[in-house]
């Protein structure tokens, strides 16, 4: 993985990462009819609460922390579990690739893996991805 950082309780909480997580959480909240949180790059009670609420909905530990791993850019979403962050992120990418249905010769582009503790194994990750065709 190119990097591993965290957002939330006892996290690295880099402002850009915090905004990414806040946007990720707002996608989840909008899909579930929940009020959106402010995307300001700051970790406050609303962001911690949103992280814990997301973790509870996923059936995982509510430690108030989201881990980010890898980077690039995306469209459909995949999810996967693993005993390590790398395994869970790779499983999420494989699920995303299967859902994206890339044509032969296309390149799979992925966004950051958003990971949390829980699921059927130690970590669960979610990633968005898209297919990019080679330029002729």
TrEMBL record:
Highest taxon in the source lineage: Bacteria
Alphabetical list of SUPFAM superfamilies matching this protein: PGBD-like
Pfam families: PG_binding_1
Alphabetical list of InterPro entries matching this protein: Peptidoglycan-bd-like, PGBD-like_sf, PGBDSf
Domain (Peptidoglycan binding-like) ranges: 16-65
The protein, known as: Peptidoglycan-binding domain-containing protein
Protein species of origin: Streptomyces flavidovirens
């Amino acid at each position: 993985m190119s990097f591993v950082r965290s957002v939330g309780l006892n996290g690295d909480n880099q402002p850009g990462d915090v905004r990414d997580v806040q946007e990720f959480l707002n996608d989840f909240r909008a899909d579930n009819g929940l009020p959106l949180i402010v995307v300001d790059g700051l970790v406050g009670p609303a962001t911690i609460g949103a992280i814990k609420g997301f973790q509870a909905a996923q059936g995982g530990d509510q430690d108030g922390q989201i881990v980010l791993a890898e980077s690039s850019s995306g469209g459909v979403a995949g999810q996967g579990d693993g005993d390590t962050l790398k395994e869970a992120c790779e499983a999420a990418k494989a699920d995303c690739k299967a859902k994206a249905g890339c044509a032969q010769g296309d390149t799979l582009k992925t966004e950051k893996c958003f990971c949390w503790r829980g699921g059927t194994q130690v970590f669960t990750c979610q990633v968005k991805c898209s297919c990019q065709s080679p330029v002729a």
